[in-house]
């Protein structure tokens, strides 16, 4: 049981990272109706930004995190203003075609600038090593991820579900014209949502480096996982996205430890089983 608790906690930390990277896509795809497959690239951008600040400029790890959030969000907002906003009323095929093209462009650009080798960073000493809690060994960095992730999760869910901003956003998605007739700037509303979602992806990418690594294929490698989390949780449901991320994170860690020959198949098997049970997602909005 102690070994299982240790493994499950590692999966919990992985699930938190998945949620941070997928939450923005849950907003843009589920609430705004925009299929942005380039979302995982924003996470890669945040990761490379943190690596550059630490390795090339000597920044401490914690100082890179808010920069990864803000700069990624700002860069994504520029894309939203210049490109993405033109596709909000387009078909999902057009949205997918454009954004997957951006993924391949970002992969090539990262390879050209940083090379194909995986990047590494050093976390502070107080985040290294393990803590022994009740006989279970808990990695300090994963504990840090869970605590930070929990705070961000609560803030995000409350911000979308319990504020006027969230109500305006849902109203704009349901009926853009009626919302605009009430004096609400819908373009600015979508831009703000895109800013927050992309920033969280960049932050998740920076936080994930010590446990997931970072290379130019990051956006492609984790695109499938992020899409699975959003779909399994239910489009537009942040609570469902959280539940799906934690379930898949724990299933992945436990499965790879106890059934190593199955590899990544565990996540897909769990996904299929859960979608057969809940075809619209675990907590799909009504």
Verbal overview:
The chain is an all-alpha fold. It has a single domain (2-277), classed as Orthogonal Bundle (ABC transporter involved in vitamin B12 uptake, BtuC). The protein is 73% helix and 3% strand. The chain is built from 12 helices and 2 strands, in the order H-H-H-H-E-E-H-H-H-H-H-H-H-H. The protein has helices at residues 2-31, 39-57, 61-82, 92-114, 140-161, 164-174, 176-181, 186-212, 218-221, 223-233, 238-258, 265-277; strands at residues 130-133, 136-139. A two-stranded antiparallel ribbon has the order 1-2. A hairpin with a 2-residue loop joins strand 1 (130-133) and strand 2. Helix 1 packs across helix 10, helix 1 runs antiparallel to helix 11 and helix 6 (164-174) packs across helix 8 (186-212). The longest helix is centred in the N-terminal third of the chain and has 30 residues, at 2-31. The radius of gyration is 19 Å and the shape is globular. The mean pLDDT is 86.
What gyration radius follows from the Cα positions, in whole Å?
19 Å
Low-confidence stretches: none
What percent of the residues sit in helical stretches (DSSP H or I)? over 70%
Number of domains: 1
| C-alpha termini separation | 38 Å
The first-level CATH class name = Mainly Alpha
The ordered string of helix (H) and strand (E) elements is HHHHEEHHHHHHHH
Proportion of strand residues: under 5%
Tell me, briefly, the overall form.
Answer: globular
Strand order of the largest sheet: 1-2
